[in-house]
Fold this sequence. Notes:
Blueprint: E1 4-5, E2 9-11, H1 19-26, H2 29-32, H3 43-60, E3 64-69, E4 79-85, E5 98-104, H4 113-128, E6 133-138, H5 143-151, E7 155-161, E8 167-174, H6 175-183
Helix pairs in contact: 1-3
Bound molecules: coenzyme A.
Coenzyme A binds near residues 101, 102, 109, 113 and 148.
Amino acid sequence: MRTLTTERLVLPPWDDRFEEDLCRLSADPRIARYLGDGRPWDRARALARHREILAHWGEHGFGWRGILLRDGGDERTLGVAALNRLRRDVPGIEEPVIEIGWWVDPRYWGMGLATEAAAALRDEAFTDHGAERLVALYQPANHASGNVMRKIGMLRHGDITGPYGEAMRVYVLDRSDWAAARAVPDRAAYRTTDEV
Ligand SMILES: CC(C)(COP(=O)(O)OP(=O)(O)OC[C@H]1O[C@@H](n2cnc3c(N)ncnc32)[C@H](O)[C@@H]1OP(=O)(O)O)[C@@H](O)C(=O)NCCC(=O)NCCS
């Protein structure tokens, strides 16, 4: 269980210190707006997820991480970034595949923090956990999250309907594309437009 660091961020593995952060972030309507049914989580739901996150780490050796500023200027948790074993059926996506996701406290939106954290977890998935494919899903109105996917090199795979009847756009990144992009220094940031 290693802590990831980026230029500005520290991304420790999940532990009990993040329990209250999860309750605070998931109760914020701006965070919950494009998650599932769009309703903020109550405390019981957040606490249940906290326990699931710890269990996922125990079972798989990867999972959710807190997002903290590296210079310690603000000790509050700025958000969460997550790798999960995919828990739903997505047409054309076969196991084993790792799902990636992110939430950032609205006070820090637009600073590139989600993209910076996501790139670190993307590399972790391929480097440490042998992923062959990374997948991410977002509701089409959630433009910021779609932008993060494209900025870390993910490509549009298709659309599905989620468990609440919501439209969801599916993005993927295959190991071969990730490795090819890393091999070319000029393409280190990956493609940023792929709309087809
Ligand atoms: C999605 C989310 C994590 C993005 O966090 P962030 O730290 O602001 O993202 P970044 O600063 O890395 O921005 C990524 C890109 O999206 C763009 N962007 C940010 N907010 C945007 C918005 N409301 N509409 C359109 N684009 C937006 C940024 O400009 C950036 O693109 P650019 O570099 O080309 O300008 C944040 O909006 C969030 O926490 N949302 C609620 C939780 C959520 O929906 N998570 C994703 C579920 S799929």
